[in-house]
Amino acid sequence: MPSTSPAGTFPAHTPAASQIFTTVLTHGPLTRQEAARRAGLSPAAVTKAVRPLIEAGFLVEDAGAEVRPAVGRPANPVRVDGGRALFAGLKATGDELIGVLTDLCCRIRVARRVPLPGRTPSEVLPVVADLVRELLTEAEGFGVRVLGLGIAVAGDVDRTAGTVRRSPFLDWRDVPLAGLVEEATGLPVTVDNDVRALTVAEQWFGDGVGLADFAVVTVGAGIGCGLVVHGRVVSGAHGVAGEIGHVPVVPDGPPCHCGDRGCLEAVASDAAITTRVREVTGVPVADATDALALARQGNAGARAVYARAGEAIGRGIATVANLLGPERVIISGEGLAAYDLFAGQIRDAFTAAAFGSAARCEIRTRPLPFEEWARGAAATAIQSFVGR
């Protein structure tokens, strides 16, 4: 497989260059004056940072879109040339691999899904290599190089080391995934927790743009939470910040796979809901899709299970709001398919449990397919490329 060359590196690895580029990427087009104001840098520092980025083609000056600043002469805005580079992103589930090819602005150009023949690293890695090879072939049609690959995996991930410490859905422990995939593909690889990757995408390109403090809560196979505090995605000293899925919300509740009882994940995950619907109704629903269909048919027991899950999610979100005081909580994940069955319970439980001004936190839903999670992985590759 082709590998990146020095020509495929970010042209100015200085803090100011990375900061200005990120500012224009997330908020642009911007005049130099506006970029300086948003980044908290002097106009001279911005001019020095912008020049090599324009020369390398990563920033473009829109001479035809002239605007006049509050004072001084007219100024041309600068914007990121999204077509200057491509990035690949992969999201691994227990059953399939979802891959996307995005441009530098993280817009999806190509999306692919392939099943996994098994869950061991020896079974997954060849599928990863084949899918990346396919995405690189697609990139040739655009005539642009792929400059990085991001991989998003559920569980405990050490992004700095590129190691999956533990992934419950793949049953992996201490897999040096970044190094293995770099060797197989020749691309720089960033590996991160899937919810944190999604949070990066929301921070740079989605509903978190411009917010210094927000959270992403995902519901579905598991319950996850990505945190942005003072403008930075937080992973914590040990890489597990935001694990609200294992916050107890039901005293003496059902057992959780973590060994505790009454965890949010043991009440509100897809598997927990499916199990509880079987117990309450006596109907042998096979999975979350069947459980949801039964509830939508008006089965009172099934609907009560979803209501209980909504209350638990609301209390979990209130815990995040009480501890960190985010401006916004974005709820996402495949579990949002049932949002109409527990939206009211989420909001009521949140309002009851949020303390004081924490109740002012905005709750916003954002249904996202797994392709968007793969896009989050690509966002982490873009982030690594820029050096942020």
Task: Provide an overview of this structure.
- By secondary structure, the protein is of the alpha/beta class.
- 41% of the residues lie in helices and 20% in strands.
- The protein has helices at residues 15-27, 32-39, 43-55, 121-142, 177-185, 194-205, 264-268, 270-281, 288-296, 300-324, 339-353, 370-386, and strands spanning 59-61, 78-80, 86-92, 96-103, 108-115, 146-153, 156-158, 163-167, 172-175, 189-193, 214-219, 223-229, 232-234, 328-332, 362-365.
- It has a five-stranded mixed β-sheet with strand order 5-4-3-6-10. It has a five-stranded mixed β-sheet with strand order 13-12-11-14-15, with helices on both faces. Strands 7-8-9 form a three-stranded antiparallel β-sheet, with helices on one face.
- A hairpin with a 4-residue loop joins strand 4 and strand 5.
- Helix 2 (32-39) crosses helix 3 (43-55), helix 6 (194-205) crosses helix 12 and helix 10 crosses helix 11.
- The longest helix is centred in the C-terminal third of the chain and has 25 residues, at 300-324.
Distance between the termini: 27 Å
Tell me the fraction of residues in β-strands, as a range.
15-25%
Radius of gyration: 22 Å
Q: Regions with pLDDT < 50 over 5+ consecutive residues?
A: 1-7
- Classify the helix fraction into a percent range: 40-55%
Strand order across the biggest sheet? 5-4-3-6-10
Secondary structure class reads alpha/beta
What is the tally of helical segments?
12
Basic shape:
globular
- The whole-number mean of residue pLDDT values reads 91
Profile the largest sheet: 5 strands, mixed
- The arrangement of helices and strands along the chain is HHHEEEEEHEEEEHEHEEEHHHHEHEH
Record field, number of beta strands: 15
Family: Belongs to the ROK (NagC/XylR) family.
Protein name: ROK family protein
Organism: Streptomyces griseoincarnatus
Pfam families: HTH_24, ROK
